[in-house]
Amino acid sequence: xxxxxxxxxxxxxxxxxxxxxxxxxxxxxxxxxxxxxxxxxxxxxxxxxxxxxxxxxxxxxxxxxxxxxxxxxxxxxxxxxxxxxxxxxxxxxxxxxxxxxxxxxxxxxxxxxxxxxxxxxxxxxxxxxxxxxxxxxxxxxxxxxxxxxxxxxxxxxxxxxxxxxxxxxxxxxxxxxxxxxxxxxxxxxxxxxxxxxxxxxxxxxxxxxxxxxxxxxxxxxxxxxxxxxxxxxxxxxxx
Length: 239
What we know:
mainly alpha, about 80% helix, globular
């Protein structure tokens, strides 16, 4: 999903205060879009969870796996169309992804108690805000660490697939802690990259900035969801 097409653009020079104003405005919009995505997923998931017929349809057939494949395909399409599709289309894909993700995530309400989901969610919010604040405020270029974290993510995915067949409890807990570490790093790195891109391309046309904004919102959304799920694996109480 992380796209380097933005690096094909070059920015000129603006007044320092004007750059800060543009960056602050676009970062606010980016975070708001992420929050909208989370709300859409939460509302969708709650609706599916409380509707017995829909939940039975999702779990009682291959539809659940079809939805997961659709999610993966939609993220891939978003990445491929990032510099070609209209901003409105990109926002539509983001919202559609949030709806699909809400449907697939509704199953956590069956596995974990509602109370533990709420507590872990609130804890994730606090932790996420601290990580995002660090990524935004630090003067260090955290993007240089991205290849290492991506390598960790690939390793995590490979081990997770292997453990589907092994069903090893030790691997399960190791992967849960590793997942928290990896997506903690992604949160700070992505926030840092988004801010630096807004700063670098502040002089470009508003359409480019809007593309950076919605792409950043999707990355931050994915960071939050994955961080929440791994923390839920560690601290959630199963029914």
